[in-house]
Amino acid sequence: MNRMRRNIFSSALAGLGAAFSVRAQEQAGAPVVAGRTGYTPVRTLNGVTLPYELKDDVKEFHLIAGEFEHEFAPGSVATCWGYNGRTPGPTIEAVEGDRIRILVTNNLPEHTTIHWHGILLPSGMDGVGGLNQPHILPGETFAYEFTLRQHGTHMYHPHADEMLQLAAGMMGMFIIHPKDGEPKPIDRDYVMLLHNWAMHPGTSRPDPSVMQDFDLWTINSKVFPAIEFPVARTGERVRIRLGNLSMWNHPVHLHGHQFVVTGSDGGRWPETLWRPETTEIVGVGQTRDIEFVAIPGDWAMHCHMSHHTMNAMGHEVPNLLGSDQSEADKKIMSLVPGYMSMGAKGMAEHQDHSMHMPGPRNTLPMMMGTGPFGNLEMGGMFTVVKIRDDLAPGDYRDPGWYPNPEGTVARRVAGPAVAAPAVDHSKMDHSQMDHSQMDHSNMDHSKP
Fold first, then answer.
1. At a CB cut-off of 8 Å and minimum separation 6, what does 162 contact?
2. Domain 40-306 adopts which CATH fold?
């Protein structure tokens, strides 16, 4: 072998070794060095990062659109559409300046495309069917190829039969790391894609025709308590990348921290634009990056629209708060043995009742999850950020519930409140009352 051939062969081996080294570091969760870039690979809760092959200095990825069974949480399984057998699809992760090629195979019963949401690229690669490209017909594979000219938190989704295909679960995240590295290194980098689903009680397919009355609100297509907990070590710098491809805006609130909003699909902002918040609205079609230095404890993180932290919500149900349902209960129980009404005194008992009262087939209870002190009474778009002093770098295992130091837990200091006694009208002296000034139209005279 002559010197030139040896040099070419050695360079090829070095390039191949470097590619495998990068992938190995990514899989191990260690910081990856690519060119001048050192970055911490993202972790998609309940998800995966899409692997690639390096072909002639082009990173080649492969997405396969298809139908599959997806579990939102134990007790709720649906037939969904997505990529590589999952929703959201695998997270695509690359570096600013990379040349990438994404092969998209369509195994759906109808045509599709993919739009690379927020990414700068040639018009013919933008993925709007009929406008930028022909539709990808069932059984076809299309190639998208472009050079990444930016960094930031981005998404991908169809731009063909978009309302149905998004409602069925076709979406994913696309993360581009800056080529010059981060101004402040990130220790843990999480990805959360927010979405909504219309899973009517007793059904097993999302309904794409619903525009507002959704039943399930998800983080990475899971509902609490099936959502993987984000974890961190005390003092680590944590970034959470939030994307919203639902049909509603989400004010995401993190307890115990004052985070800073540092970026979006426009990239990581200059530090002069960072702003402190505890709640950040992520609008439909937007992404937001939040960063914070981890404080020990178990900290709730959730959408602050309260009905987005519930499952299997009822819509247009009569308001029963404060009503006397005793007579109606007797009549209904004669037809439906075991019936139990709820709501007259609030819904706090719902989670306990749901444990022994069967609901519709394939339908989750409205409230789920238990913690160290009892029912958490949550569902949907809710999780817990778990931060510990002794968590090893790169360890993403659930550390269990936080052992609160002695004297730091709210405690009872007085007995339970006693309800005011009911007024007995039979013992009241009515002789001194001026009935001429009273409004009798709304009085129930059938009761004392």
1. none
2. Immunoglobulin-like (2.60.40)
| Confidence check: pLDDT of 442 > 50 | no
Tokens linked to 429: 């002296």
Residue among 129, 125, 107 at smallest CA distance from 116: 125
The larger pLDDT score, comparing residue 163 to residue 309, is at 163
* Mean pLDDT over the full length of the chain: 82
Q: What is the pLDDT of residues 266-307, one digit of tens each?
A: 888 999 999 999 999 999 999 999 999 999 999 999 988 887
In three-state form (DSSP H/G/I as H, E/B as E, the rest C), the secondary structure along 412-445 is CCCCCCCCCCCCCHHHCCCCCCCHHHCCCCCCCC
- Alpha carbon 258 to its chain's center: 20
Task: State the Rg of the chain over Cα.
Answer: 27
Q: What element of type H or E holds 9?
A: helix 3-28
Domain map of the chain by residue range?
A: 40-306
The pLDDT tens digits for 78-88 are 999 999 999 99
191-222 pLDDT tens trace = 999 999 888 888 889 888 887 777 788 999 99
Angle at 162 between CA 146 and CA 166, to 5 degrees: 95
**End-to-end Cα, the chain, rounded Å:** 108
Query: What length is written for the chain?
Result: 448
- Within 8 A by CB and 6+ apart from 400, the residues are none
Structure tokens that stand for 19 in this block: 């590619």
Rounded mean pLDDT, 98-125? 97
For 46-81, b/e burial (b = at least 16 CB within 10 A) is: ebebbebebeeeebbbbbbbbebebebbeebebebb
Cα–Cα dist 65/84, whole Å: 6
In angstroms, the CA 285 to CA 246 distance is: 8
Quick check: 106 and 118 in contact, CB under 8 A?
no
Three-state secondary structure readout of 139-179 = CCEEEEEEECCCCEEEEEECCCCHHHHHHCCCCEEEEEECC
Phi, psi of 8, deg, nearest 5: -65, -45
Q: Is the four-CA dihedral 374, 74, 385, 166 of positive or negative sign?
A: negative
- What's the pTM? 0.79
